[in-house]
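Thread title: Can someone regenerate the structure for this chain?

I was given the following input by a collaborator and told the matching C-alpha cells would be attached. They weren't. Posting the sequence so someone can regenerate them.
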Amino acid sequence: MALLDKLDDLRGKATEMMQSGVAIAKLKTDNMAEEDAMRRAYLAIGKMYFELYGDAPDAAFSVDCDRIRACQLRIAENNLRLAQIKDDITDPPAASDPPVEKTAPEPAPEQTTPPEPDVVPFEKEEVPISDVPKHAETSSHSETVPKENEELPIEERK
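Best answer:
Regenerated them for you:
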C-alpha cells in the first residue's frame, strides 16, 4: 500500500507541475502579446510625430527624423531604378534597331574631394528606455527597446 500511496503522490505532484508549467507558458505568451502591442504603439507614436513635426522636429528628435528622410530618399531612388529595370525588361530593343556593341566600361574618374554627406547613415541601435523623458517611463529599471525590424533573441521572449 505504501507503494501505491507514493505513486498517487507522485502523480499528484506531476499534475501540479504540468498545470503550473501551462500557467507559466500562458503568462509568458500573454506578456509577449502585450510587449508586441506596446511596440506597435511606440511605432504609431513615432510615425505620428514624424508626420506632424518631421519637417521641424525638436532637437532631441532631429537626428532620427534626418535618418527617416534619408531612408525615404533612398527608397524613392531604388523605386525609380526598379521601374527603369522593369521597363528595360518589358521593352526589348526592336529588330530594326542596330545591335549594340558591348565594350568594357570605362573606369570611373577618381574623386579628389570627398562627397558631401547628404544622408545620415542608419545604424541599428538599441535605445535605453531610461533615455525616454520621465513622463513616458513606465518602469523603474533600465531596459532596451528594439528597433522596428530587429528580432528579439529567444531568451528575451521568455
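Residues 130-144 have pLDDT under 50 and may be disordered.
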